[in-house]
Amino acid sequence: MASFALKSFTGLRQSPTDQITFVSHASSSLSRSQRRTSLKVTASRASPKLAKRPLRVAVIGGGPAGGAAAETLAQGGIETILIERKMDNCKPCGGAIPLCMVGEFNLPLDIIDRRVTKMKMISPSNIAVDIGRTLKEHEYIGMVRREVLDQYLRERAEKSGATVINGLFLKMDLPEEWDSPYVLHYTEYDGKTGATGQKKTMEVDAVIGADGANSRVAKSIGAGDYDYAIAFQERIRIPDDKMTYYEDLAEMYVGDDVSPDFYGWVFPKCDHVAVGTGTVTHKGDIKKFQLATRNRAKDKILGGKIIRVEAHPIPEHPRPRRLSKRVALVGDAAGYVTKCSGEGIYFAAKSGRMCAEAIVEGSQNGKKMIDESDLRKYLEKWDKTYLPTYRVLDVLQKVFYRSNPAREAFVEMCGDEYVQKMTFDSYLYKRVAPGSPLEDLKLAVNTIGSVFRANALRREIEKLNV
């Protein structure tokens, strides 16, 4: 059995009780006219033309967010530098991507390990519900390995003109004047200086922090802490006959045994399965939950060999502050992982692209200096498009992940074909699927019924435990 020591993650908050606030455009204590005036001052500052050089932007972090941002910047005429420490990084991530991401980001099909068309949602009492009956013939959930996807996006950014540096970002000196450069301190690993690397500095006009949940860029701008989950995953190579079962199938397990506030998963990869779980509230018990997940799936992974063990922090909500002057956060660094499902890959890449597009537009393709008002357009567009999704999934997690009876009700609800259609349409295409008023009413009644049954079952269980 492989062993793995969890490291501590700095800059993240473990308390689930702190209140989260989003960055507003102006103090709520100001009058409407005062707010308009203060915004005009920020937005009306004349950004000067840059003399004999393009705008220079550093992207810290080479995951989906950083790769997508660097490619968009380079294509938009920006001098782009991407700094990534672990070029073979294997983040403990289920690796599911929605169908729309394949088209939006022009991903080649050969980096997709599996096309999942069936899922099993398995309740605490091991009742399994088959999900996927409403998928059309061409629809699927893509399964990727992060090391493959991340490398592909970085290489594509490099082909577009970005400079990719194998280096560790250490800190940055903030500018004293509004248009002065940011000074980045980093260690570069070029294969010539050995494992210690060479300490260097670099001046840039703007910075995109795509350096994950434990972001040093976020720390540099005082972005604040947030609650986080620990994700733990084992990659297990199983016999060929067992792998056939998971050819186009993924499994999700719910129950207090696998996680008190999340779920366990078995997701198929090219020649192995990824078995994992996560938790916010009981991080010290993560190995116990992982063992339980493996035990729930033991008959289907019997004879398997653990080939890799991974652990990583996963943000639970957006940071209190996601931009400051000419620095913006994207992906996990900004906190863009959904509750309930734990999805983050698409939102990381999308936020990186959105942020880069705002810089390209505000700088007139690298010809002008930018300021905070340009980056704020990215946040406004992001919040308008995706924040409602995060709030809905937050409510679902609080309602259905709070107890085993509630999880039984959740699995029961997932068996409804209308629920499956609405869920998959929204997930695969990242848009609100139009519903039927009659079916919505039926769903509301059935949901209330499931919740009542769950509460009644919980009370009976509590009586038995007295």
Strand adjacency order, main sheet: 10-9-8-2-1-11-18-17
Reported for the largest beta sheet, the result is: 8 strands, mixed
> Gyration radius, to the nearest Å?
23 Å
Shape: globular
Rounded average pLDDT: 85
**Helix proportion range:** 25-40%
- Fraction in beta strands: 15-25%
| End-to-end CA span | 38 Å
- Low-pLDDT parts are 1-11, 13-44, 438-443
Q: What is the structural class?
A: alpha/beta
Tally the helices: what do you get?
Answer: 14
Please provide the count of β strands. Answer: 18
Task: Please tell me about this protein's structure.
The protein is α/β, with parallel strands linked by helices and 466 residues long. It has helices at residues 32-43, 64-75, 99-104, 146-159, 216-220, 240-245, 286-296, 298-301, 331-334, 345-362, 372-400, 404-414, 417-429, 437-465, and strands spanning 56-60, 79-84, 96-97, 114-116, 118-122, 128-131, 141-143, 163-173, 182-188, 198-204, 206-209, 228-237, 249-255, 259-268, 273-279, 305-315, 323-324, 327-329. Helix 10 packs antiparallel against helix 11. The protein is globular, with a radius of gyration of 23 Å.
